[in-house]
Known about the structure:
By secondary structure, the chain is an all-alpha fold. It has one domain. Helices cover 61% and strands 0% of the residues. The chain is built from 9 helices and no strands. The two termini are 27 Å apart. 42% of the residues are buried. The mean pLDDT is 95.
Amino acid sequence: MIPDRQNAYELLCAYNDGAFHRQHARIVGQVMRWYAQELGYADEAEFWQCVGILHDIDFEQYPQEHCLRAPELLRAAGIDERMIHAVVSHGWGITVDVAPEHEMEKVLYAVDELTGLIGATVKMLPGGSVQDLQLKSLKKKFKDRRFAAGCSREVITRGAELLGWSLDELFERTIRAMQQSEVSYD
């Protein structure tokens, strides 16, 4: 089964009570939808968004087994194997050996950590809005490894390399995705 975004979000919520994880899932889902449209996969935008929503399904309950427990949870819900592979591959080199293959998986790998870094950077801005974020501010925060230390710069860099993009290109596109996708979150 390939869920729609509402069903994907409900499934995520069944395993994630925290507002932070729910908000992160929605942000990554919106960014993934934007990238699908931007990269010529508009007909798969819902699929990309659902992968983004579900990517951390196991993180809150099983942080030490992140991406290892996801297949079990997703299969129990009857989720399509392509979606499961995509979700698991974002843990490549961290907890699993499943490499991102499809462009969608490479985008997820690159933007998961980056959206967190962008979100932390935005909180430091006077207006607190992604609309005000400039590339130079993000680059400065990226270089400061103490800032948002939980956001892996190595994964972000590796993700840009997988996509064949410079870090600046990945940053600019993802900022634009978040600006154009900004919605209110509960």
